[in-house]
Write a structure and sequence with these properties.
With 203 residues, the protein is mostly helical. The protein is built from 12 helices and 4 strands, in the order H-E-E-H-H-H-H-H-H-H-E-E-H-H-H-H. The strands form 2 sheets. It has a two-stranded antiparallel sheet with strand order 1-2. Helix 6 (98-106) packs parallel to helix 8.
């Protein structure tokens, strides 16, 4: 926590390029960004949590510049939201923020992390093929299955089948997604594809 405060103070005094603090590229930090971070935090004792909360918001909105700044000054790429239990990666994936997902994965965000109901970045971002590919390539659990109200919910394959997303379904099946997994109501991805009248998926 103190490291984060010290870095911010130094940035206030020096708005030139910041080198070698975990970034692969040089970033120029505007004074206004630093001042907002400093003046918005309720107290130094909850400063790290404040950074993490700002990171969730930046990931959902896709502000890659702000994500870089927040990670630079100490935000945790794997921090879980205090009430929802989701990680920044889940938020970015669910919002379809491709560049934010890419950046978080480069900063070692865990693609296997699960929220309180077992949601993962893959089950959240199943509707974006580019995001699905990045997550699977980084080792996401392709058959992760959330549990809602004590009942098994939909895997990424089930959700993509329900949406009729042929490209995502094909990719997931090619990389080991199990079409025989059932929900709490005994439905499979094949059943969902048939309900959507998509025989080319249900074959």
């Amino acid at each position: 926590m103190m490291h984060s405060v010290i870095v911010l103070i130094l940035l206030c005094k020096n708005t030139g390029p910041v080198h070698n603090l975990g970034m692969r590229m040089t970033i120029r930090i505007p004074v206004f960004v630093v001042l907002i971070l400093l003046t918005s935090a309720p107290s130094a004792f909850c400063f790290d949590r404040f950074l993490d909360q700002q990171l969730y918001s930046a990931c959902e909105s896709g502000s890659t510049f702000l994500i870089k700044v927040l990670l630079l000054v100490g935000a945790d790429a794997n921090a879980k939201h205090p009430t929802e239990g989701v990680t920044p990666l889940m938020g970015a994936a669910g919002a379809g923020q491709v560049e934010a997902v890419k950046l978080l994965l480069e900063k070692n965000a865990d693609p296997k992390a699960a929220g309180r109901n077992g949601d993962t970045a893959l089950t959240a971002g199943y509707h974006h093929l580019a995001i699905v590919k990045m997550l699977v390539e980084k080792g996401a659990d392709i058959n992760a299955q959330p549990v809602v109200n004590q009942k098994k919910a939909m895997t990424a394959l089930m959700s993509a089948s329900m949406d009729g997303d042929k490209d995502v379904v094909a990719y997931l099946l090619e990389h080991g997604a199990d079409p025989a997994i059932k929900t709490g109501s005994e439905k499979t991805a094949i059943d969902m594809a048939e309900m959507r009248h998509l025989p080319e998926i249900s074959k």
